[in-house]
Amino acid sequence: MLAEKGELKAQNKNLYVASLVAQLGSFMMGYTLAYTSPAIPDMEDRGVLKTTDQISWFGSLMAIGAIFGGPIAGFFVGNYGRKVAMMMCFLPFVVGYGLISSLDNIATLYFGRILTDVGAGMVSFSTPVYIAELSSLDLRGMLVGVSHPFIGGGMLPVNALGCDDGSLGVLVLWGVCFLSTIFVALCVPETKGKSLEEITKDFNRYNRHL
């Protein structure tokens, strides 16, 4: 009985850690949702966004990017697995914010904004799918719902740090993306086509990283 309890405790620990790692994508989604709030006034002051139309487009392009993010994530989830899909979510964030921080021209800003929102759309699809497959029935609702605090946590640094020159905030996001990729690669198992028992066995192999 004690051995069974100890095994269950270890399994739950692995589950919590893997879920938190997966939710780092939700952190980046929150960052993206809040980004335009401090960024637009800063870009106006420096003459990057010069007209009301430019400001409106930059603020509203999220809807366009998110439309494509879900189907792209669905393609990776179905063909390459949930783990690969989550890792691919980080790529449009890195490239998109890199383009935005360059402040080269208005077309670059627009394209960068679309890419970051593609990443947000990919996260909104792939992360809940992964966590739902990973979790036992009694913990599934709670672990999927943790995405909301992480989204709020992503909104905090962009508003607290601001977007002056785009550098500090972008460095924070790039750091999160890099760590997320490493953690997902090393610390979480694939769930595609596997039962909870098979996933638990995979957890045992990953346990040394947790």
What topology emerges from the helices and strands here?
Layout: H1 2-22, H2 24-45, H3 52-60, H4 62-80, H5 82-102, H6 106-134, H7 137-145, H8 147-161, H9 167-187, H10 196-206
Please summarize what this structure is:
By secondary structure, this protein is mainly α.
Descriptive notes:
With 210 residues, the chain is mainly α. The protein has a single domain, classed as Up-down Bundle (Growth Hormone, Chain: A), CATH 1.20.1250.20. The protein is built from 10 helices and no strands. It has helices spanning 2-22, 24-45, 52-60, 62-80, 82-102, 106-134, 137-145, 147-161, 167-187, 196-206. The radius of gyration is 19 Å and the shape is elongated.
Total number of helices: 10
Q: Assign the structural class, choosing from mainly alpha, mainly beta, alpha/beta, alpha+beta, or little secondary structure.
A: mainly alpha
Work out the radius of gyration: 19 Å
Helix content: over 70%
How much is the average pLDDT? 78
The main pleated sheet reads as:
none
Task: Show unreliable segments.
Answer: 1-8
Q: Judging from the principal axes of the Cα atoms, what is the shape?
A: elongated
Kindly identify the CATH topology. Growth Hormone, Chain: A
User: What is the domain total for the residues?
Assistant: 1
Q: How many beta-strand runs? A: 0
CATH superfamily: MFS general substrate transporter like domains
- Look at the structure and give the CATH class: Mainly Alpha
Order of helices and strands: HHHHHHHHHH
N-to-C terminal Cα separation, in Å?
Answer: 24 Å
Q: From the 3D coordinates, which CATH architecture would you assign?
A: Up-down Bundle
Beta-strand residue fraction: under 5%
